[in-house]
Amino acid sequence: EPEVTQTPSHQVTQMGQEVILRCVPISNHLYFYWYRQILGQKVEFLVSFYNNEISEKSEIFDDQFSVERPDGSNFTLKIRSTKLEDSAMYFCASSGQGISNQPQHFGDGTRLSIL
Amino acid sequence: AQSVTQPDIHITVSEGASLELRCNYSYGATPYLFWYVQSPGQGLQLLLKYFSGDTLVQGIKGFEAEFKRSQSSFNLRKPSVHWSDAAEYFCAVGSNSGYALNFGKGTSLLVTP
Q1: Do the chains contact at B90 and A42, CB–CB below 8 Å?
Q2: Closest-CA residue in chain A for B42?
Q3: Which of A75, A86, B53, B66 has its CB surrounded by the most CB atoms within 10 Å?
C-alpha cells in the first residue's frame, strides 16, 4: 500500500536555527498537509497545500513557517528561526481529493527537538 | 467552530473483552468523521471514516463506528480486543468548507492479559 514518507525521523536543532522537514506524499495525491503534535497534546492542523499554493492555514502557521513543493515528489515545511516551543512531532499527510471525498493519509512523523 | 471531545483519557480492557471508545463532536452541518490509531513511535493510521450514507461504518482490524446525529457521537467499537490493539486512538472531524482535520485529545488504550 502506498505510504507517506517523512525524513528525518528525528531532528535536533539549536534554537534560532532554520530547519526543513521533508515529506514524500503518496504519488497520485494532490492535497498536502502538515500537522504537529506537542508532547502530551492533541494533533493540531498547521497548513494545507493544493495546486502550488496554501489553501488553508491555522493561527499556528505564522511568518516563521513556510511550505514548498520544490519538485514533483517532495513537500517541505520550513521553520525559519526555531523556538523552544516548536519542539513537537510534525506529521505530513496527503489526500487524493479534498476532505469531502477522500481521507488524509499520514506519515510516521518527524520528531523535532529544539535545544 | 468544530470541536471534538474524547471523554476518556485512558481505558484499560482485558484481552478478548469488548471495547467502546467515545467521541463527541460539535459542528453545525453533517461532519466528516474519522478514527485514527497511533502506535508508539508510529504515525497516524486511518481506521475508518464516515462521509455519508450508512451510519454504521466498518474499518480495518475489526473496528466499527456508528454515527449518531442525535447524540453528536461517533463511537468506536470492537467486539474482542487483542493485545496488539494497545495504542492511542484519535477521533477527528472535518468539513466540506475546509481542509483541516480537527482532532480530539486521544484515548490511550491499555490491554491486559
Answers
A1: yes
A2: A108
A3: A75
Dist CA B99 CA A93 (whole Å): 11
CA A97 to chain centre: 18
Q: Is the pLDDT of residue A90 over 90?
A: yes
Asked if B25 and B39 touch (Cβ cutoff 8 Å), the reply is: no
The C-alpha cell 504537529 sits at: A36
Rounded distance, CA B85 to CA B108, Å?
10
pLDDT score, position A58: 93
Q: Does the beta-carbon distance from B99 to A109 stay under 8 Å?
A: no
- The pLDDT of residue A101 is above 80: no
- DSSP E strands: which ranges in B15-79? 19-21, 24-26, 32-38, 44-50, 56-58, 64-68, 73-78
Q: Which three cell numbers stand for residue B4?
A: 471534538
Q: To 5 degrees, how large is the angle CA A84–CA A88–CA B96?
A: 125
CB atoms under 10 Å from CB of A67, counted, come to: 22
A vs B, Cβ pairs < 8 A, gives: 62
pLDDT in tens, A14-71: 999 999 999 999 988 989 999 999 998 889 999 999 999 999 999 999 999 999 998 8
